[in-house]
Description:
Elements: E1 4-8, H1 12-24, E2 28-33, H2 36-46, E3 50-54, H3 62-72, E4 78-82, H4 87-96, E5 100-103, H5 108-119
Parallel strand pairs: 1-2, 1-3, 3-4, 4-5
Helix pairs in contact: 2-3
Amino acid sequence: MATRILLADDLSFMRMVQKEILEEKGYDVVGEASDGLEAIEKYKSLRPDILILDITMPNMNGLDAMHKIFELDKQAKIIMCSALGQQQLIVEAIKSGVKDFIVKPFKPERILSAIEKAMR
């Protein structure tokens, strides 16, 4: 069965790029969220194998959503993504338990290696 992935990014274009890369490699993108609150709700209902979560989003940012999801599921496999210049936030996310992080703009091989790392 294909690895089930939930994408959370406020930019639909970024979700579309990620989805194309992932589906081309046989991953199953089971849902998309445009902010942290929606990411939490979709995580609860879809129970994906992996969540790719943008740090900067409206309503609730990715770090706050990450903390809430870890409260719901300590075993959650989360990969954070961010733009350059957010090193402090990335460090906080890694200390909190995320599996990996990807920097925008995405390189397909970097997304795929982050997923492989998260699934180990």
